[in-house]
């Protein structure tokens, strides 16, 4: 059955390279996130056709990011958003909450509740299709959390999530799912396209261990803006129902939410099966009884199943998660 929010499409395969309007600095260039909208045939099969898969992989190679439009059920997003918005308000009320860089940006885990576990959100077929094609084998999802923008006037520093000496090839993709439309007004993430190969430690002010690790040196930011204005920085508009796949190495920056409504964006990370991961993010935690929901034929989800309730709002956050690998 088709998702109720999916647009109709021709039964024959159509290749489309679509771009969304963005907010960007004044120049002759207009940066944009490349977008794919699956056809009717692709929706039915749950997989991208070869031409669209090539487009996705080329975008990830060139820009470090690709958007898949109209692939998540809006009703499921609304249900999860109601729950997580309430949780966000609780976290914001804490004196020492899970803030990333500033109090307007919190790390927030989704509820480990079987009634809130929607396959098209957490194990989306199209997302897995692309991460498998890029990373090979059976990717590992060892991180499942979220980033919530609260009303604020502060920005994060431009940074990379790969705040350590990492491989020079793609090894991890962040699967971002906004629970609402994401736009500059409510803090859509600022992007620096094509910087995924530029995030090595010598480009960073400090690496893992510092609370604000991963910050990109100011002189490199200015150089990049001068040399590649067509690549940003900019804040895209990401329609509700879309999934964004982002190379973990890409430079980016959390921006202020100027509205009164928290903007929740989920972040699942798929690692290559060869990536030798260790640390706190190695295994997820769910209540006993959810084992069947976490068993997936195409995605490895290492998890521990514990007696409920799971205290998911008291978990570690920020760079307490070490995505480095073993020697």
UniProtKB/TrEMBL annotation:
<dbReference type="InterPro" id="IPR051961">
    <property type="entry name" value="Fungal_Metabolite_Diox"/>
</dbReference>
<dbReference type="InterPro" id="IPR008775">
    <property type="entry name" value="Phytyl_CoA_dOase-like"/>
</dbReference>
<protein>
    <recommendedName>
        <fullName>Phytanoyl-CoA dioxygenase</fullName>
    </recommendedName>
</protein>
<dbReference type="Pfam" id="PF05721">
    <property type="entry name" value="PhyH"/>
</dbReference>
